[in-house]
Amino acid sequence: MTISRLVSALFSVLTIFLVYLLSKKILSKRWALLSAMLFSLSVGSIQAAHFNTTETILTFFIVFLTILSFQFFEIIKKSNGSQELIGQSLILGSVLGAAAASKITAFSFVLSPLSILLVCFNKLKWKVWLLIGLLFAASTAAFFFFGSPYNLIDFETFRKTQDYIQSVVVGTIKPPFTIIYEGTIPYIYQLTRIFPWIFSPLGTLAAVFGFFLLWVSFIKNRRPEYLVILLWPTVYFLVSGFWFNKFTRYYVPLLPFLAISSTFFFYWLSQKDKLKQISQLLFCSIILLQLIYVLSFVSQIYLKTNTRVAASEWIYQNIKPQSTIATEHWDDRLPLLLPDYDPSQFQFLELTVYDSDTPKKIEELVKKISQSDYIVLSSRRVFYSILQNEKAYPLTSSFYQNLFKENLGFVLIHEERRSLRPLVFATDDDSADESFQSYDHPPVFIFQNKARLNAEALLKLIQTAN
């Protein structure tokens, strides 16, 4: 796990340099440095670098592939001959194949080199394009199967796994942990509950304007090379924005493009005599606010004990051995196994709250609650998703509502929380996407059974409240 995290961090650091190189394709060195700075100060890139996920690798590859696509465009523009084009197409294919070997989503990166075909189709003969395409496809396939050989060796398992994953992503299959996205509004959700938290509120706003200006420059000012930097992020956002599942990590690969487009917005302002002062003020404000936000994030999350670990330590120190602790299924059970501490000293009951609200389920639920000395909620993943689906879980929703109101005889005796709040937000990150919290700083709630109500009394309270 430690090695995989180091690999993730390494790819994230290398991407900073690539963002600089990519930004330099359309802007000067000074502005390119700003793009690299904005990406390096994005909370989303820092958070992703701490975990064993493929998103940092994907981010590295999409920026690298976009740079190579720019070079491909420059080769065609200079008409340097077919040999160089063939070599470049093989390199592009190998990078795309390696990216797809890390995660199948990377096949969408083909839009970056495809953008060259769209803007340079009449620059080469169709036979040359055909040769380039065949070599590109062959190198992509070769590196894809070399990087993930079992996808070919056991293709049936690979196909079934991909069918399931894609079904979960689009919402045709809905495991319990995904119902948190029921009723969320496509695109608006990402723009209000993801990007402002993983990039910054003002930075996201600047990026939206900058992206629009890049499209205007591409169309109005006839800058065909801009399509290389525009096509993939535009299509990816339009497609992924409509997915049922909207996990924060899905949007980490867009962060380099947010950094570059927000930089382009500042560059555009600086070219307007009447807006130069505004540009400088906005630039300084966003950098300052983003720096403060990042420092706050790092100090609150990575310079302090993880909330689940801190809550586990508190449980060991304050709850008597052999106490009965109720925890939710589909979430981490606390306390964790720690040095010198063993959770086997406690008795555990699992609350199967995601089961349908049948009389039998509710009967079992209140029975376990009445037998519990404590209830420990190790994040807001489960209870928040159920409260978001009150029609499907009327009685379970009533249970959680009354639990937090302390109407069931349970009192909140301890809470572990690392609240984050970008300066322009009035609320903390409870309003962010749940997965933004649960990766590294989930809130933990510990309730103690003070009233000792029996199952019948608990059931009556829940049904009456409902």
Describe the structure.
The protein is mainly alpha-helical. It has 2 domains: 2-302, no CATH class; 307-465, no CATH class. 61% of the residues lie in helices and 6% in strands. It is built from 21 helices and 5 strands. The protein has helices spanning 2-23, 29-40, 43-49, 55-78, 82-102, 111-120, 126-147, 150-153, 155-170, 188-193, 195-198, 201-220, 226-240, 255-270, 276-302, 307-318, 359-371, 381-387, 394-404, 434-438, 455-465; strands at residues 324-328, 347-351, 374-377, 410-416, 444-449. A 5-stranded mixed sheet has the order 2-1-3-5-4. It is elongated and about 80 Å long. The model has no long low-confidence stretch (mean pLDDT 89).
Topology diagram in text:
Layout: H1 2-23, H2 29-40, H3 43-49, H4 55-78, H5 82-102, H6 111-120, H7 126-147, H8 150-153, H9 155-170, H10 188-193, H11 195-198, H12 201-220, H13 226-240, H14 255-270, H15 276-302, H16 307-318, E1 324-328, E2 347-351, H17 359-371, E3 374-377, H18 381-387, H19 394-404, E4 410-416, H20 434-438, E5 444-449, H21 455-465
Parallel strand pairs: 1-2, 1-3
Antiparallel strand pairs: 3-5, 4-5
Helix pairs in contact: 1-2, 1-3, 1-4, 1-14, 2-14, 4-5, 4-6, 5-7, 6-13, 12-14, 14-15, 17-21, 19-21
